[in-house]
Design goal:
Helices cover 75% and strands 0% of the residues. By secondary structure, it is mainly α. The chain has one domain: MetI-like (MetI-like fold, Orthogonal Bundle), CATH 1.10.3720. Helix 3 runs antiparallel to helix 10 and helix 7 runs antiparallel to helix 10.
Length: 294
């Protein structure tokens, strides 16, 4: 009786095997080719002129690249922590068995259904000093009101952070809410009997229980940070000047506009290593540590 099951599984695996091989060949092949190009002097077209680490030296001596890395760090820290905190608070709010829970879940999760491009364009309009919040407040009578962060070199990156948190906190809320709903009700009963303040329960009991959910959220948010391109282009175009430049935009600009494939691939390789570094803890916990415990 087991042979038909075995044969059907084998047939299914053999059916998808060519697609898996092709996908892996194309993906791995393109990645390796990109890394190889980062060690060449390729400009408009790829070539095999090996120049060693020259592109990487030039990359890290480029002000625009250094600014993009700093912006990625600022964006990453504020975006990740802000999304986690806001998403957790929203999840706690909904977990209180509020009325119209489905409505609130939909409202809070809706921004995540939008792309970063749509989010960026919406916030670009809202924060535009001539059209958005500043102009509306001035029309309402507060003529001295000023909120020009979008066009201010020192604060523009923070407007991108606000928009990204608004877009991503709904996903974190959904993950956190699922985790909160899985907490044993007996824990809450015991803490109420002992008279433990609610905030201490969340801080010392609930948050440690939600550790795996928080870890997953951090990984997802970290990947969004590394790939952060759409929202920057839609909101600021990297400006004013290079105030909101990010590595992904640097790479695509040098690849498509500045005809410097070698330098662009060097930047892309650095981004690849960043993604691997972000995924390494998750892969370790999911496979290595789990295999050791199992």
């Amino acid at each position: 009786m087991k042979y038909p099951l075995i044969s059907s599984r084998l047939a299914a695996r053999l059916t998808i095997l060519p697609f898996v091989v092709i996908a892996l060949t194309i993906f791995v092949g393109c990645v390796l080719w990109s890394v190889q190009l980062s060690f060449t002097s390729s400009k408009l077209l790829p070539n095999s002129d090996f120049v060693g680490l020259d592109q990487y030296i030039r990359l890290f001596n480029t002000t625009r690249w250094i600014v993009s890395l700093k912006n990625m760090v600022i964006f990453g820290v504020l975006f990740t922590s802000g999304s986690l905190i806001l998403g957790f608070l929203l999840a706690v709010f909904i977990d209180q068995k509020v009325r119209a829970e489905s409505f609130f879940r939909t409202v809070f999760l809706y921004p995540h259904a939008l792309s970063f491009v749509v989010t960026g364009l919406a916030w670009q309009w809202f924060l535009n000093p001539a059209l958005g919040l500043q102009e509306m407040v001035r029309v309402a009578g507060w003529e001295s009101f000023t909120f020009d962060w979008l066009v201010n070199r020192d604060f523009a990156i923070y407007t991108v952070v606000f928009a990204a948190i608004w877009q991503a906190s709904g996903l974190v809320m959904a993950l956190m809410l699922a985790g909160l709903r899985g907490v044993d009700p007996e824990i809450w009963k015991a803490t109420k009997i002992d008279g433990v303040p609610t905030w201490r329960v969340y801080l010392h009991v609930i948050i440690p229980i939600l550790g795996p959910v928080i870890f997953t959220s951090v990984i997802l948010l970290s990947l969004s940070v590394v790939k952060g391109y759409d929202i920057v282009v839609a909101m600021t175009g990297g400006g004013p000047g290079i105030a909101t430049e990010v590595p992904a935009k640097f790479v695509l600009d040098h690849l498509l506009q500045r005809a410097n494939i070698g330098l662009a691939m060097a930047g892309a390789t650095v981004m690849l290593l960043t993604v691997i570094a972000a995924l390494a803890p998750w892969l370790y916990v999911k496979h290595v540590k789990k295999g050791a415990n199992g």
